[in-house]
Amino acid sequence: MPNPDLEPTIRHPAPEIGPRAQRSIDRILEATREVFLARGYGGASIDRIADAAGVSRASFYTYFPTKRDALLALGVGKTRRARAVIRQLRQLGPSWTVDDLRAWTATMFEFLDEYGTFGTAWGQAAHEDDELREAGLKTHLETCRKLGEAMDELRGGPTGDTTLQGLIVWNMYDGVWNQCRLYQPEVTTSDAAPEIVNFLAAVLKAGLT
Description:
about 210 residues; Tetracycline Repressor, domain 2; single chain; about 0% strand
């Protein structure tokens, strides 16, 4: 059976990762993300990643055995960031205001600016990799469940299927963000934000009745 809980292999040249090594890892991961964005997973060779990071090929292998491990490490970072954003929503509680939702929406779009294109590279890699596909599905649905639970907190009580509700709201933000990327400058996330906030506020208020 495929393992749904994949973890990246990050090599440690020393018993602990020091500040210098961590900076190198961060630089490699940022370069990996940029190359995935520009060329997709298949076109992201380790040589291109190393060049973008300003390190040697050997330096890449010092920390990551394969580009798949770099992809997994990026996935871990995306998941942690996504759940931190969701916690911010949950902490608003039942006394939330429309201004709160505006601020959170700005944070959500900032998250998507950083990680929104990552899903394309993951999808390309997962096309022929059952472990990646299963891990991605499990992690995404768990993130959506947490988003649905956050919405329940704002409503003041449970309403319906939290995973499905979280999935709908997540896809709303992700879809709007993607369309704004395609249609800018005619339509931007700044243009879309007031409408998406009004929609989310209406959904939350409807759940109280």
